[in-house]
Structure formats: C-alpha cells, structure tokens
C-alpha cells in the first residue's frame, strides 16, 4: 500500500448519523494487489469496528493499477475512515465530489471498487445475498463465452469444437494478422512475443481488413451453425474501414462484433446500423453509464458491454440506469464480460 495521508481534522459526519445512534464505523480501507495469470487485480477491503465484518470490492485497471491504488490509499481511505458504511450513496457522492474534477476510468475504478465493497458489507451485515438488495433474482442462469485464437481458420475451428465439447455455446474467435501486433491471438514465436512485450510491433488496419474477414467466414463454414461466434475488433478501425469490415463478415453469421469503433467515433454507429445487419457490441471502454444512453436510444447497438459496476459508477446507479436504458421496446441486451470457467474474466464473473 502507498502511504496514506492522515486527515488534519476529523471528517464531518452526515447530519443523521448521531440521530439514529448507529455506532458502526469504517476503521480502514485497504488495497491488495494480486496478479493471477499475470494480470494485475486490485482488491479493496472496507473494514469496520465490528470484528470480522468487512466488505470486498474489485478496483482493477490492468493499465493504470497503481494510479487507481493511489486514489484509494492516499485520498479516499482517509476520507472514509470513521464514517457509517451503511450510507453508500452519501459516501459515493462525497468521494466523487471531493475530487472536484470528476469522471474518467481511474477515479471510476476506485469509486466502483469501494462501492462494491460497501454493498458487500451491507449484505453481510443484513445476512442476505447481495442480489436481494438490488432487486432480487431475475435469471437462474446466464450464457457465457470463452475465447480462442489461431493462425488460420482450421486452427480456430479445432479450438471452437473443443470449446463446444466443454459446454460453451458462445465462442469469441480472434485470428492473427500476418506481420502485425495482433490483439487477441497468441504470438507465433519468441521474436513476436518479445516485440509485443517491448511494444515495438506495428499495426496495419488495412492488413486486418484483408486478412480477418475471410478467416471468420471460413471458420463458420468449418464449425457449422450450432455455435455462436463472436469477434472483437478492439477499436482498431476507422469509421470507413468499420463499415467495410461489417460488409465482409455478413456471411460469417457472427453473434456480435465488439468495439468495431473507438469510443470517440461512437456517433458513427447509426450509419453502421443502417448499412449492416451484423449485431454490434460496445461499451467496454466507457467510463460512465451515461455514455450508453445515446447508443441505446436508437438503438444503434445490440449489446451494451459492461465491465461490471466499476468503472461505470455505483452499483445502485448501475441497476437504475440499466433499467432506464434497456426498455421492452428495444433489442439491446446487456452483456457483462464473463468468460466462465476460463479464469480470464473479472473476479466477480467466476463466482
């Protein structure tokens, strides 16, 4: 943990705290950095003066882990010590507004991790499962996908078949682009692995546009129609290329294409929707739920891809805004990132 700064003055309490006589208080907010499968995960633990009563949350940002940790350890932990952990909404607004400049994934991950920990703590205190506090049960199961990658369609088809044998009906397929630093496909050798580690590889959007669609179409031919195939373009195409890519993969019968545009190009989704029947997914890179609303209003996307309550905001807002955004008159569906049984999804997806 980074060194926490002790506040010079005791924090002000909400005006109703003494009135209701609740003596449960936050005594510490701690962070723990773990590295399962080589990917950093930042866990938050909110502790109380009731021995053994604490809440856990996830504040992971693999690219800016230490920055998120500093926000929690150096700024939010001193702010929350001594406060009532039951006042989740009040604490969230306090932490959010204390920064003055609000928003962004670093602050969002920090706030989201603490928020989930506070909800976990509240559920434990009440002796109820967390879903009971957020509206109750809705489904008895949810579909999950696994990920495969390969150098060509034949390798992908073999891996898709193996995934089907493990029980997966949805498989994300990523294929290599010759000579490029390819997202989602394993390096072909030590030289390519070293280039990726050093970030010295190059990316060729035109090469991706030429190489990937034929592989996806051929993979579909090899595996048949009884399995859903997904693909992540990882926002590496400009709007013109995105439209051409969707035209070329129509016959691949994809369940969805994810991040065919960068967040800053999201205004072009309406044009893509009008020109292509391929289902579209977007949202992994969003830092607030409000960014989904223009895309769902049309709707111009089919799946709102969310990394869970963080970095998008408090869990209660996550539930409320989801209800507002996805109405019975839209075809949009929320697709939390869950790669079940693979160990590659967020910690909350594997429970």
TrEMBL record:
Region spans: Disordered: 307-337
UniProt domain Mandelate racemase/muconate lactonizing enzyme C-terminal: residue ranges: 153-279
Domain of life (superkingdom): Bacteria
Gene3D superfamilies on file: Enolase-like C-terminal domain, Enolase-like, N-terminal domain
Matching InterPro entries: DgoD-like, Enolase-like_C_sf, Enolase-like_N, Enolase_C-like, Mandel_Rmase/mucon_lact_enz_CS, Mandelate_racemase_C, Mandelate_racemase_N_dom
The protein, known as: Enolase C-terminal domain-like protein
Organism: Streptomyces asiaticus subsp. ignotus
């Amino acid at each position: 943990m980074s060194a926490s700064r002790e506040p010079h003055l005791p924090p002000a309490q909400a005006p109703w705290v003494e009135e209701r006589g609740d003596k449960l208080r936050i005594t510490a907010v701690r962070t723990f950095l773990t590295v399962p499968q080589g990917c950093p995960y930042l866990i938050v633990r909110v502790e109380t003066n009731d021995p053994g009563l604490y809440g856990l949350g996830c504040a992971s940002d693999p690219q800016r882990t230490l920055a998120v940790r500093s926000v929690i350890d150096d700024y939010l932990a001193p702010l929350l010590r001594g406060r009532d952990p039951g006042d989740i909404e009040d604490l969230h607004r306090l932490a959010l507004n204390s920064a003055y400049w609000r928003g962004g994934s670093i602050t969002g991950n920090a706030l989201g991790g603490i928020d989930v920990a506070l909800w976990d703590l509240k559920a434990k205190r009440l002796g109820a499962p967390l879903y009971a506090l957020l509206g109750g049960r809705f489904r008895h199961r949810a579909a999950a996908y696994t990920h495969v990658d390969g150098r060509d369609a034949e390798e992908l088809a073999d891996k898709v078949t193996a995934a089907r044998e493990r029980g997966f009906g949805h498989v994300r397929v990523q294929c290599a682009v010759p000579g490029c630093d390819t997202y989602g496909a394993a390096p072909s050798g030590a030289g390519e692995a070293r280039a990726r580690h050093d970030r010295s590889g190059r990316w060729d959007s035109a090469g991706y546009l030429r190489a990937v669609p034929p592989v996806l179409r051929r993979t579909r031919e090899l595996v048949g129609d009884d399995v859903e195939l997904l693909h992540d373009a990882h926002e590496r195409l400009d709007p013109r290329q995105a439209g051409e890519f969707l035209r070329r993969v129509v016959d691949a019968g994809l369940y969805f294409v994810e991040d065919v545009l960068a967040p800053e190009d999201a205004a072009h989704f309406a044009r893509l929707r009008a020109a292509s029947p391929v289902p579209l997914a977007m949202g992994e890179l969003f830092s607030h739920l409000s960014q989904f609303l223009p895309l769902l209003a049309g709707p111009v996307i089919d799946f709102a891809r969310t990394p869970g309550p963080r970095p998008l905001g408090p869990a209660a807002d996550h539930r409320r805004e989801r209800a507002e955004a996805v109405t019975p008159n839209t075809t949009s569906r929320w697709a939390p990132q869950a790669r079940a049984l693979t160990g590659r999804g967020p910690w909350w997806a594997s429970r």
